[in-house]
Amino acid sequence: MKYVTPPGKGASERCVLGGYLSPFCKAVFVSLIPPAFSPVSLYLFPLFPSQFPLFCFSRPAPELPIVERRNWLIHQHYIRKDYDTCKAIIKEQLQETNGMCEYAIYVQALIMRLEGKIQPSLELFQSCAILNPGSADNLKQVARSLFLLGKHKAAIEFYHEAARLNEKDWEISHNLGLCYFFIKDFQQHLNIALRINKHDKTFMMLGKVHLLAGETDKAIEVYRTAVEFSPENTELLSTLGLLFLQLGKYQKAFEHLGNALTFDPNNYKAILAAGSMMQTHGDFDVAMNKYRVAACAVPESPPLWNNIGMCFFGKKKYVAAISCLKRAHYMSPFDWKVLYNLGLVHLTMQQYASAFHFLSAAINLNPRMGELYMLLAVALTNLEDVENATRAYEQAATIDESNPLVNLNFAIFLYNHGDKKATLDQYQEMERKVNRLRDNNGNFEFDTELMDMAQKMGAALQVSEGLVWTKPGKDSKSNGNSAAAAKAPGAPLGTNQALGQAMSSAASYNKNVLLPTACWLGFLLLFVLPLTKTSRTMRPRSVSHLLLNYTAPTIYPPVLYGQSVANGQLVNVHHQL
Protein backbone atom coordinates (compact mmCIF):
# COMPACT_ATOMS: atom_id res chain seq x y z
CA MET A 1 0.00 0.00 0.00
CA LYS A 2 1.47 3.32 -1.03
CA TYR A 3 0.56 6.94 -0.31
CA VAL A 4 1.16 9.50 -3.02
CA THR A 5 1.03 13.23 -2.57
CA PRO A 6 0.91 15.11 -5.88
CA PRO A 7 3.13 18.18 -6.24
CA GLY A 8 1.54 21.23 -4.74
CA LYS A 9 -0.99 19.22 -2.79
CA GLY A 10 -1.20 19.09 0.97
CA ALA A 11 -1.81 16.26 3.37
CA SER A 12 -5.52 16.97 3.28
CA GLU A 13 -5.61 15.95 -0.38
CA ARG A 14 -3.60 12.75 0.01
CA CYS A 15 -5.27 9.82 -1.77
CA VAL A 16 -5.13 6.11 -1.18
CA LEU A 17 -4.06 3.31 -3.60
CA GLY A 18 -1.89 5.70 -5.62
CA GLY A 19 -4.80 7.38 -7.39
CA TYR A 20 -5.42 11.06 -7.94
CA LEU A 21 -8.92 12.47 -8.26
CA SER A 22 -10.18 15.53 -9.99
CA PRO A 23 -11.82 18.17 -7.80
CA PHE A 24 -15.23 16.96 -8.95
CA CYS A 25 -14.56 13.34 -8.07
CA LYS A 26 -13.01 14.35 -4.77
CA ALA A 27 -16.15 16.22 -3.84
CA VAL A 28 -18.27 13.20 -4.71
CA PHE A 29 -16.25 10.74 -2.65
CA VAL A 30 -15.87 13.08 0.29
CA SER A 31 -19.63 13.40 0.40
CA LEU A 32 -19.86 9.62 0.63
CA ILE A 33 -17.66 9.42 3.76
CA PRO A 34 -19.84 8.74 6.81
CA PRO A 35 -19.59 11.39 9.58
CA ALA A 36 -18.38 8.79 12.04
CA PHE A 37 -15.08 8.40 10.22
CA SER A 38 -12.37 10.61 11.63
CA PRO A 39 -9.13 11.71 9.93
CA VAL A 40 -7.30 9.20 12.12
CA SER A 41 -9.31 6.32 10.70
CA LEU A 42 -8.34 7.30 7.16
CA TYR A 43 -4.73 6.45 7.89
CA LEU A 44 -5.77 3.05 9.25
CA PHE A 45 -7.18 2.06 5.84
CA PRO A 46 -4.12 0.00 4.85
CA LEU A 47 -4.74 -2.22 7.89
CA PHE A 48 -8.48 -2.62 7.47
CA PRO A 49 -9.30 -2.00 3.81
CA SER A 50 -12.63 -3.81 3.93
CA GLN A 51 -14.10 -1.38 6.45
CA PHE A 52 -13.51 1.83 4.46
CA PRO A 53 -14.57 3.29 1.16
CA LEU A 54 -12.16 3.03 -1.75
CA PHE A 55 -10.99 6.60 -1.46
CA CYS A 56 -10.80 8.50 1.85
CA PHE A 57 -9.53 12.01 2.53
CA SER A 58 -8.52 13.88 5.77
CA ARG A 59 -9.53 17.51 6.42
CA PRO A 60 -8.82 20.02 9.27
CA ALA A 61 -11.29 20.38 12.13
CA PRO A 62 -13.40 23.54 11.94
CA GLU A 63 -12.82 26.35 14.46
CA LEU A 64 -15.79 26.60 16.78
CA PRO A 65 -16.80 30.09 17.99
CA ILE A 66 -16.37 29.40 21.73
CA VAL A 67 -16.50 32.47 23.99
CA GLU A 68 -13.85 31.20 26.42
CA ARG A 69 -11.41 29.76 23.90
CA ARG A 70 -8.67 32.32 24.70
CA ASN A 71 -9.07 32.31 28.49
CA TRP A 72 -6.04 30.08 28.96
CA LEU A 73 -3.87 32.47 26.93
CA ILE A 74 -5.13 35.49 28.87
CA HIS A 75 -4.34 33.70 32.12
CA GLN A 76 -0.83 32.78 30.99
CA HIS A 77 0.11 36.35 30.11
CA TYR A 78 -1.52 37.74 33.28
CA ILE A 79 0.38 35.53 35.69
CA ARG A 80 3.60 36.37 33.81
CA LYS A 81 2.78 40.08 34.30
CA ASP A 82 2.92 40.65 30.55
CA TYR A 83 0.07 43.11 30.83
CA ASP A 84 0.43 44.78 27.41
CA THR A 85 0.08 41.51 25.51
CA CYS A 86 -2.66 40.43 27.88
CA LYS A 87 -4.66 43.60 27.21
CA ALA A 88 -4.27 43.15 23.44
CA ILE A 89 -5.64 39.59 23.63
CA ILE A 90 -8.48 40.75 25.88
CA LYS A 91 -9.41 43.47 23.40
CA GLU A 92 -9.52 40.97 20.54
CA GLN A 93 -11.54 38.52 22.61
CA LEU A 94 -14.10 41.14 23.63
CA GLN A 95 -14.51 42.26 20.01
CA GLU A 96 -15.24 38.70 18.91
CA THR A 97 -17.73 38.08 21.72
CA ASN A 98 -19.33 41.54 21.74
CA GLY A 99 -18.20 42.10 25.32
CA MET A 100 -19.77 38.91 26.70
CA CYS A 101 -16.59 37.12 27.86
CA GLU A 102 -16.70 37.29 31.66
CA TYR A 103 -13.13 36.16 32.28
CA ALA A 104 -11.64 38.68 29.84
CA ILE A 105 -13.52 41.52 31.56
CA TYR A 106 -12.47 40.20 34.99
CA VAL A 107 -8.75 40.15 34.13
CA GLN A 108 -8.97 43.56 32.46
CA ALA A 109 -10.46 44.95 35.69
CA LEU A 110 -7.64 43.39 37.74
CA ILE A 111 -5.03 44.99 35.48
CA MET A 112 -6.72 48.39 35.71
CA ARG A 113 -6.77 48.18 39.50
CA LEU A 114 -3.07 47.34 39.54
CA GLU A 115 -2.48 50.44 37.40
CA GLY A 116 -4.35 52.59 39.94
CA LYS A 117 -7.52 53.01 37.87
CA ILE A 118 -9.88 52.06 40.69
CA GLN A 119 -13.12 53.57 39.36
CA PRO A 120 -12.88 51.97 35.86
CA SER A 121 -12.02 48.64 37.49
CA LEU A 122 -15.11 48.95 39.70
CA GLU A 123 -17.31 49.42 36.63
CA LEU A 124 -15.80 46.37 34.93
CA PHE A 125 -16.27 44.20 38.02
CA GLN A 126 -19.88 45.34 38.14
CA SER A 127 -20.22 44.16 34.52
CA CYS A 128 -18.86 40.77 35.58
CA ALA A 129 -21.41 40.63 38.39
CA ILE A 130 -24.19 41.34 35.87
CA LEU A 131 -22.97 38.59 33.52
CA ASN A 132 -22.66 36.09 36.39
CA PRO A 133 -24.71 37.24 39.42
CA GLY A 134 -24.19 33.94 41.23
CA SER A 135 -20.41 34.34 41.53
CA ALA A 136 -19.17 35.33 44.98
CA ASP A 137 -15.76 36.22 43.52
CA ASN A 138 -17.26 38.96 41.36
CA LEU A 139 -19.04 40.48 44.35
CA LYS A 140 -15.84 40.30 46.41
CA GLN A 141 -13.95 42.22 43.75
CA VAL A 142 -16.68 44.88 43.54
CA ALA A 143 -16.47 45.28 47.32
CA ARG A 144 -12.68 45.41 47.15
CA SER A 145 -12.74 48.29 44.67
CA LEU A 146 -15.29 50.14 46.82
CA PHE A 147 -13.02 49.60 49.83
CA LEU A 148 -10.04 51.10 47.99
CA LEU A 149 -12.20 54.09 47.04
CA GLY A 150 -12.95 54.65 50.74
CA LYS A 151 -16.63 53.64 50.45
CA HIS A 152 -16.52 51.25 53.38
CA LYS A 153 -20.25 51.01 54.07
CA ALA A 154 -21.03 50.18 50.43
CA ALA A 155 -18.22 47.60 50.48
CA ILE A 156 -19.75 46.02 53.59
CA GLU A 157 -23.06 45.52 51.76
CA PHE A 158 -21.38 43.71 48.87
CA TYR A 159 -19.29 41.56 51.24
CA HIS A 160 -22.46 40.52 53.06
CA GLU A 161 -24.04 39.58 49.73
CA ALA A 162 -20.93 37.55 48.85
CA ALA A 163 -21.06 35.87 52.28
CA ARG A 164 -24.65 34.82 51.54
CA LEU A 165 -23.38 32.98 48.45
CA ASN A 166 -20.30 31.52 50.17
CA GLU A 167 -20.58 31.33 53.94
CA LYS A 168 -17.26 29.55 54.57
CA ASP A 169 -14.94 31.99 52.81
CA TRP A 170 -12.51 33.31 55.45
CA GLU A 171 -11.38 36.12 53.15
CA ILE A 172 -14.86 37.65 53.19
CA SER A 173 -14.87 37.81 56.99
CA HIS A 174 -11.31 39.15 57.00
CA ASN A 175 -12.19 41.93 54.57
CA LEU A 176 -15.36 42.70 56.50
CA GLY A 177 -13.16 43.15 59.56
CA LEU A 178 -10.97 45.56 57.59
CA CYS A 179 -14.02 47.58 56.52
CA TYR A 180 -15.33 47.72 60.07
CA PHE A 181 -11.80 48.68 61.16
CA PHE A 182 -12.30 52.06 59.50
CA ILE A 183 -15.70 52.61 61.05
CA LYS A 184 -14.47 51.51 64.50
CA ASP A 185 -16.31 48.19 64.75
CA PHE A 186 -13.98 45.45 63.72
CA GLN A 187 -13.12 42.69 66.16
CA GLN A 188 -16.10 40.37 65.61
CA HIS A 189 -15.51 39.61 61.94
CA LEU A 190 -11.77 39.06 62.38
CA ASN A 191 -12.54 36.41 65.00
CA ILE A 192 -15.04 34.82 62.61
CA ALA A 193 -12.35 34.74 59.91
CA LEU A 194 -9.97 32.96 62.29
CA ARG A 195 -12.63 30.40 63.17
CA ILE A 196 -13.25 29.68 59.48
CA ASN A 197 -9.59 29.51 58.49
CA LYS A 198 -6.50 30.61 60.39
CA HIS A 199 -4.41 32.98 58.30
CA ASP A 200 -1.35 35.12 59.04
CA LYS A 201 -2.92 38.32 57.71
CA THR A 202 -5.94 37.95 59.97
CA PHE A 203 -3.71 37.37 63.00
CA MET A 204 -1.72 40.51 62.16
CA MET A 205 -4.85 42.60 61.78
CA LEU A 206 -6.45 41.31 64.98
CA GLY A 207 -3.26 42.04 66.92
CA LYS A 208 -3.26 45.55 65.52
CA VAL A 209 -6.86 45.99 66.67
CA HIS A 210 -5.89 45.10 70.24
CA LEU A 211 -2.96 47.52 70.10
CA LEU A 212 -5.31 50.30 69.00
CA ALA A 213 -7.51 49.55 71.97
CA GLY A 214 -4.48 49.66 74.29
CA GLU A 215 -4.76 45.94 75.06
CA THR A 216 -1.10 44.99 74.75
CA ASP A 217 -1.48 41.71 76.65
CA LYS A 218 -4.24 40.51 74.32
CA ALA A 219 -2.19 41.56 71.31
CA ILE A 220 0.74 39.49 72.58
CA GLU A 221 -1.54 36.47 73.05
CA VAL A 222 -2.81 36.84 69.48
CA TYR A 223 0.72 37.05 68.10
CA ARG A 224 1.83 34.08 70.21
CA THR A 225 -1.00 32.00 68.77
CA ALA A 226 -0.03 33.21 65.30
CA VAL A 227 3.60 32.17 65.84
CA GLU A 228 2.48 28.71 66.96
CA PHE A 229 0.39 28.44 63.80
CA SER A 230 3.10 29.86 61.52
CA PRO A 231 6.47 29.55 63.31
CA GLU A 232 8.54 30.66 60.28
CA ASN A 233 6.72 33.92 59.60
CA THR A 234 9.42 36.55 60.19
CA GLU A 235 6.93 39.41 60.28
CA LEU A 236 5.04 37.82 63.17
CA LEU A 237 8.27 36.98 65.00
CA SER A 238 9.71 40.48 64.66
CA THR A 239 6.40 42.08 65.70
CA LEU A 240 6.21 39.92 68.81
CA GLY A 241 9.83 40.71 69.62
CA LEU A 242 9.13 44.44 69.38
CA LEU A 243 6.18 44.12 71.74
CA PHE A 244 8.34 42.33 74.32
CA LEU A 245 10.95 45.03 73.81
CA GLN A 246 8.32 47.65 74.59
CA LEU A 247 7.46 45.87 77.85
CA GLY A 248 11.13 45.65 78.84
CA LYS A 249 11.25 41.84 78.53
CA TYR A 250 14.60 41.82 76.77
CA GLN A 251 15.20 38.07 77.01
CA LYS A 252 11.99 37.18 75.19
CA ALA A 253 12.54 40.03 72.75
CA PHE A 254 15.99 38.69 71.87
CA GLU A 255 14.56 35.18 71.50
CA HIS A 256 11.90 36.15 68.96
CA LEU A 257 14.09 38.62 67.10
CA GLY A 258 16.80 35.97 66.91
CA ASN A 259 14.32 33.46 65.47
CA ALA A 260 13.28 36.02 62.87
CA LEU A 261 16.91 36.54 61.88
CA THR A 262 17.44 32.77 61.74
CA PHE A 263 14.75 32.36 59.10
CA ASP A 264 15.64 35.61 57.31
CA PRO A 265 19.13 37.00 58.05
CA ASN A 266 18.33 40.12 56.01
CA ASN A 267 15.13 41.00 57.87
CA TYR A 268 15.84 44.67 58.40
CA LYS A 269 13.11 45.17 61.01
CA ALA A 270 14.60 42.53 63.30
CA ILE A 271 18.13 43.81 62.61
CA LEU A 272 17.13 47.36 63.46
CA ALA A 273 15.36 46.27 66.64
CA ALA A 274 18.32 44.18 67.81
CA GLY A 275 20.69 47.04 67.03
CA SER A 276 18.62 49.48 69.05
CA MET A 277 18.71 47.14 72.06
CA MET A 278 22.51 46.96 71.83
CA GLN A 279 22.63 50.72 71.44
CA THR A 280 20.47 51.14 74.54
CA HIS A 281 23.05 49.23 76.56
CA GLY A 282 25.95 51.26 75.17
CA ASP A 283 27.31 48.76 72.62
CA PHE A 284 27.56 51.37 69.87
CA ASP A 285 30.11 49.55 67.71
CA VAL A 286 28.10 46.31 67.67
CA ALA A 287 24.94 48.28 66.90
CA MET A 288 26.69 50.04 64.02
CA ASN A 289 27.64 46.66 62.54
CA LYS A 290 23.98 45.65 62.66
CA TYR A 291 22.94 48.91 61.03
CA ARG A 292 25.39 48.34 58.16
CA VAL A 293 23.50 45.16 57.27
CA ALA A 294 20.15 46.93 57.50
CA ALA A 295 21.40 49.80 55.34
CA CYS A 296 21.82 47.41 52.41
CA ALA A 297 18.12 46.51 52.58
CA VAL A 298 16.61 49.92 53.41
CA PRO A 299 19.11 52.70 52.62
CA GLU A 300 16.38 55.35 52.85
CA SER A 301 14.90 54.42 56.23
CA PRO A 302 14.50 57.42 58.61
CA PRO A 303 14.63 55.24 61.78
CA LEU A 304 17.86 53.66 60.55
CA TRP A 305 19.64 57.00 60.02
CA ASN A 306 18.22 58.30 63.30
CA ASN A 307 19.74 55.39 65.20
CA ILE A 308 23.05 55.67 63.34
CA GLY A 309 23.16 59.34 64.27
CA MET A 310 22.59 58.55 67.93
CA CYS A 311 25.36 55.93 67.80
CA PHE A 312 27.72 58.70 66.71
CA PHE A 313 26.29 60.87 69.48
CA GLY A 314 27.06 58.16 72.03
CA LYS A 315 30.63 58.01 70.70
CA LYS A 316 30.85 61.83 71.02
CA LYS A 317 31.15 62.34 67.25
CA TYR A 318 28.66 65.18 67.20
CA VAL A 319 29.22 66.45 63.65
CA ALA A 320 28.63 62.97 62.21
CA ALA A 321 25.59 62.61 64.47
CA ILE A 322 24.08 65.85 63.16
CA SER A 323 24.78 64.80 59.57
CA CYS A 324 22.95 61.48 59.99
CA LEU A 325 20.06 63.08 61.88
CA LYS A 326 19.71 65.75 59.19
CA ARG A 327 19.45 62.96 56.63
CA ALA A 328 16.74 61.25 58.68
CA HIS A 329 14.95 64.59 59.01
CA TYR A 330 15.11 65.10 55.23
CA MET A 331 13.50 61.69 54.66
CA SER A 332 10.85 62.16 57.36
CA PRO A 333 10.39 65.88 58.10
CA PHE A 334 7.39 65.36 60.40
CA ASP A 335 8.97 62.82 62.74
CA TRP A 336 9.16 64.50 66.14
CA LYS A 337 11.68 61.96 67.48
CA VAL A 338 14.30 63.00 64.93
CA LEU A 339 13.70 66.66 65.81
CA TYR A 340 13.99 65.77 69.52
CA ASN A 341 17.39 64.19 68.93
CA LEU A 342 18.58 67.10 66.78
CA GLY A 343 17.65 69.48 69.58
CA LEU A 344 19.47 67.34 72.13
CA VAL A 345 22.66 67.14 70.05
CA HIS A 346 22.68 70.91 69.48
CA LEU A 347 22.18 71.45 73.21
CA THR A 348 25.19 69.24 73.87
CA MET A 349 27.23 71.31 71.41
CA GLN A 350 26.02 74.51 73.13
CA GLN A 351 24.26 75.67 69.94
CA TYR A 352 21.23 76.86 71.86
CA ALA A 353 19.50 78.83 69.11
CA SER A 354 19.53 75.84 66.75
CA ALA A 355 18.38 73.59 69.58
CA PHE A 356 15.50 75.98 70.26
CA HIS A 357 14.26 75.76 66.66
CA PHE A 358 14.39 71.95 66.50
CA LEU A 359 12.73 71.53 69.90
CA SER A 360 10.00 74.03 68.99
CA ALA A 361 9.25 72.05 65.83
CA ALA A 362 9.13 68.81 67.83
CA ILE A 363 6.69 70.38 70.30
CA ASN A 364 4.40 71.46 67.47
CA LEU A 365 4.29 67.84 66.27
CA ASN A 366 4.01 66.26 69.74
CA PRO A 367 2.72 68.80 72.27
CA ARG A 368 2.02 66.18 74.99
CA MET A 369 5.60 65.20 75.88
CA GLY A 370 6.94 66.94 78.97
CA GLU A 371 10.63 66.26 78.28
CA LEU A 372 10.45 68.37 75.12
CA TYR A 373 9.34 71.38 77.16
CA MET A 374 12.08 70.70 79.70
CA LEU A 375 14.79 70.71 77.02
CA LEU A 376 13.25 73.81 75.49
CA ALA A 377 13.48 75.47 78.89
CA VAL A 378 17.17 74.55 79.08
CA ALA A 379 17.77 76.19 75.71
CA LEU A 380 15.80 79.30 76.70
CA THR A 381 17.72 79.58 79.96
CA ASN A 382 21.00 79.61 78.09
CA LEU A 383 19.54 82.21 75.73
CA GLU A 384 18.77 84.32 78.87
CA ASP A 385 15.02 84.27 78.31
CA VAL A 386 14.04 83.58 81.92
CA GLU A 387 10.33 84.35 81.52
CA ASN A 388 9.73 81.90 78.68
CA ALA A 389 12.00 79.32 80.32
CA THR A 390 9.80 79.47 83.43
CA ARG A 391 6.69 78.94 81.31
CA ALA A 392 8.30 75.98 79.57
CA TYR A 393 9.22 74.37 82.90
CA GLU A 394 5.69 74.90 84.21
CA GLN A 395 4.23 73.28 81.11
CA ALA A 396 6.64 70.35 81.42
CA ALA A 397 5.74 69.80 85.08
CA THR A 398 2.03 69.96 84.24
CA ILE A 399 2.21 67.45 81.38
CA ASP A 400 4.70 64.92 82.78
CA GLU A 401 3.18 63.28 85.86
CA SER A 402 5.70 60.48 86.31
CA ASN A 403 9.20 61.78 85.58
CA PRO A 404 10.82 63.26 88.74
CA LEU A 405 13.69 64.70 86.71
CA VAL A 406 11.45 67.42 85.32
CA ASN A 407 10.65 68.67 88.82
CA LEU A 408 14.28 68.38 89.95
CA ASN A 409 15.45 70.42 87.00
CA PHE A 410 12.72 73.00 87.59
CA ALA A 411 13.66 73.18 91.28
CA ILE A 412 17.32 73.86 90.43
CA PHE A 413 16.27 76.54 87.95
CA LEU A 414 14.05 78.26 90.54
CA TYR A 415 16.73 78.03 93.23
CA ASN A 416 19.31 79.67 90.99
CA HIS A 417 16.87 82.53 90.41
CA GLY A 418 16.12 83.04 94.11
CA ASP A 419 12.58 81.62 94.39
CA LYS A 420 13.12 79.24 97.31
CA LYS A 421 9.43 78.73 98.14
CA ALA A 422 8.62 77.51 94.63
CA THR A 423 11.84 75.49 94.70
CA LEU A 424 10.64 73.64 97.81
CA ASP A 425 7.28 72.90 96.16
CA GLN A 426 8.96 71.36 93.11
CA TYR A 427 11.34 69.37 95.30
CA GLN A 428 8.46 67.92 97.31
CA GLU A 429 6.61 67.06 94.09
CA MET A 430 9.72 65.28 92.90
CA GLU A 431 9.79 63.22 96.12
CA ARG A 432 6.14 62.26 95.66
CA LYS A 433 6.89 60.97 92.16
CA VAL A 434 9.88 59.01 93.45
CA ASN A 435 7.76 57.37 96.15
CA ARG A 436 5.09 56.51 93.59
CA LEU A 437 7.67 54.90 91.31
CA ARG A 438 9.14 52.84 94.15
CA ASP A 439 5.69 51.71 95.29
CA ASN A 440 4.93 50.46 91.79
CA ASN A 441 8.33 48.79 91.43
CA GLY A 442 10.08 47.58 94.55
CA ASN A 443 13.39 47.10 92.72
CA PHE A 444 13.43 50.61 91.35
CA GLU A 445 16.84 52.30 91.77
CA PHE A 446 18.29 55.64 90.76
CA ASP A 447 21.83 56.27 89.69
CA THR A 448 24.15 57.36 92.50
CA GLU A 449 25.18 60.58 90.76
CA LEU A 450 21.57 61.59 90.36
CA MET A 451 20.98 60.81 94.03
CA ASP A 452 23.94 63.00 94.97
CA MET A 453 22.47 65.90 93.02
CA ALA A 454 19.12 65.47 94.78
CA GLN A 455 20.88 65.36 98.14
CA LYS A 456 22.70 68.60 97.36
CA MET A 457 19.40 70.15 96.45
CA GLY A 458 17.86 68.91 99.69
CA ALA A 459 20.80 70.22 101.71
CA ALA A 460 20.45 73.62 100.11
CA LEU A 461 16.77 73.64 101.06
CA GLN A 462 17.56 72.18 104.53
CA VAL A 463 15.28 69.15 104.02
CA SER A 464 18.00 66.49 103.79
CA GLU A 465 16.86 64.58 106.90
CA GLY A 466 13.85 63.06 105.14
CA LEU A 467 15.36 62.37 101.76
CA VAL A 468 13.74 59.51 99.90
CA TRP A 469 16.91 59.13 97.86
CA THR A 470 19.06 58.00 100.82
CA LYS A 471 20.26 54.40 100.71
CA PRO A 472 21.49 52.29 103.67
CA GLY A 473 25.25 52.26 103.95
CA LYS A 474 25.74 55.61 102.26
CA ASP A 475 24.80 57.91 105.10
CA SER A 476 28.33 59.12 105.62
CA LYS A 477 28.69 60.08 102.00
CA SER A 478 25.32 61.76 102.00
CA ASN A 479 26.11 63.70 105.16
CA GLY A 480 29.42 64.82 103.72
CA ASN A 481 27.77 66.05 100.58
CA SER A 482 25.07 67.77 102.56
CA ALA A 483 27.58 69.52 104.76
CA ALA A 484 29.58 70.65 101.78
CA ALA A 485 26.52 72.02 100.12
CA ALA A 486 25.26 73.70 103.27
CA LYS A 487 28.37 75.85 103.56
CA ALA A 488 27.19 78.10 100.79
CA PRO A 489 23.41 77.74 100.48
CA GLY A 490 23.06 80.93 98.51
CA ALA A 491 25.55 79.99 95.79
CA PRO A 492 24.43 78.47 92.49
CA LEU A 493 24.28 74.69 92.63
CA GLY A 494 26.82 72.64 90.72
CA THR A 495 30.29 73.05 89.30
CA ASN A 496 32.09 71.93 86.19
CA GLN A 497 33.55 69.07 88.20
CA ALA A 498 30.09 67.97 89.27
CA LEU A 499 29.00 68.14 85.65
CA GLY A 500 31.82 65.83 84.66
CA GLN A 501 30.80 63.35 87.36
CA ALA A 502 27.16 63.35 86.26
CA MET A 503 27.81 61.68 82.93
CA SER A 504 25.83 58.52 83.72
CA SER A 505 23.00 59.88 85.85
CA ALA A 506 19.54 58.49 85.29
CA ALA A 507 20.83 55.22 83.86
CA SER A 508 18.67 53.24 86.25
CA TYR A 509 15.73 55.50 85.61
CA ASN A 510 15.92 54.99 81.86
CA LYS A 511 16.27 51.22 82.24
CA ASN A 512 13.37 50.73 84.65
CA VAL A 513 10.69 53.18 83.61
CA LEU A 514 8.64 52.10 80.63
CA LEU A 515 7.94 55.09 78.49
CA PRO A 516 4.56 55.24 76.76
CA THR A 517 4.28 54.12 73.18
CA ALA A 518 2.66 56.08 70.42
CA CYS A 519 0.04 54.47 68.15
CA TRP A 520 -1.33 55.96 64.95
CA LEU A 521 -4.02 53.88 63.17
CA GLY A 522 -2.59 50.71 64.55
CA PHE A 523 1.05 51.26 63.62
CA LEU A 524 2.99 50.91 66.86
CA LEU A 525 5.95 53.25 67.48
CA LEU A 526 8.36 51.57 69.86
CA PHE A 527 11.20 53.77 70.99
CA VAL A 528 13.91 53.26 73.60
CA LEU A 529 15.75 55.95 75.52
CA PRO A 530 19.35 54.76 75.89
CA LEU A 531 21.86 56.43 78.13
CA THR A 532 24.30 58.72 76.37
CA LYS A 533 26.99 60.32 78.46
CA THR A 534 27.71 63.98 78.11
CA SER A 535 31.09 65.49 77.31
CA ARG A 536 33.23 66.70 80.19
CA THR A 537 34.16 69.86 78.31
CA MET A 538 30.75 71.51 78.59
CA ARG A 539 30.56 74.78 80.54
CA PRO A 540 26.97 75.45 81.56
CA ARG A 541 25.99 78.61 83.37
CA SER A 542 24.29 76.73 86.21
CA VAL A 543 23.40 73.24 87.29
CA SER A 544 19.86 73.65 85.99
CA HIS A 545 21.37 72.68 82.66
CA LEU A 546 22.72 69.44 84.08
CA LEU A 547 19.43 67.76 83.41
CA LEU A 548 20.13 67.62 79.72
CA ASN A 549 22.50 64.83 80.83
CA TYR A 550 19.56 62.99 82.36
CA THR A 551 17.49 63.08 79.19
CA ALA A 552 18.87 60.43 76.92
CA PRO A 553 18.41 60.54 73.14
CA THR A 554 15.42 58.85 71.61
CA ILE A 555 16.21 55.88 69.41
CA TYR A 556 13.58 53.46 68.29
CA PRO A 557 13.22 50.14 66.49
CA PRO A 558 11.39 50.18 63.18
CA VAL A 559 7.73 50.98 63.01
CA LEU A 560 5.71 47.78 62.79
CA TYR A 561 4.93 46.58 59.26
CA GLY A 562 8.19 48.15 58.02
CA GLN A 563 7.43 51.78 57.29
CA SER A 564 7.43 55.02 59.15
CA VAL A 565 4.23 56.79 60.09
CA ALA A 566 4.82 59.68 57.74
CA ASN A 567 4.65 57.50 54.63
CA GLY A 568 1.01 56.35 54.61
CA GLN A 569 1.21 52.71 55.62
CA LEU A 570 -2.49 51.88 55.18
CA VAL A 571 -1.95 51.45 51.45
CA ASN A 572 0.24 48.44 52.22
CA VAL A 573 -2.50 46.94 54.38
CA HIS A 574 -4.93 47.28 51.49
CA HIS A 575 -2.64 45.50 49.04
CA GLN A 576 -2.00 42.57 51.37
CA LEU A 577 -5.32 40.94 50.42
**Helix proportion range:** 55-70%
The end-to-end span amounts to 65 Å
Q: What is the CATH architecture descriptor of the domain at 302-567?
A: Alpha Horseshoe
Cross-sheet strand order for the largest sheet: 1-2
- What's the CATH class label of the domain at 302-567? Mainly Alpha
Task: Please identify which CATH superfamily of the domain at 302-567 we are dealing with.
Answer: Tetratricopeptide repeat domain
- Which strand-content bin applies to the residues? under 5%
Sheet with most strands: 2 strands, antiparallel
**How many strand segments?**
2
Treating each run of at least 4 consecutive H or I residues as one helix, how many helices? 29
Instruction: Determine the mean pLDDT.
Output: 71
The shape, in one word, is elongated
Radius of gyration: 37 Å
Reported by name, the CATH topology of the domain at 302-567 is Serine Threonine Protein Phosphatase 5, Tetratricopeptide repeat
Ranges where pLDDT stays below 50 over 5 or more residues in a row are 1-33, 35-52, 471-577
Structural class: mainly alpha
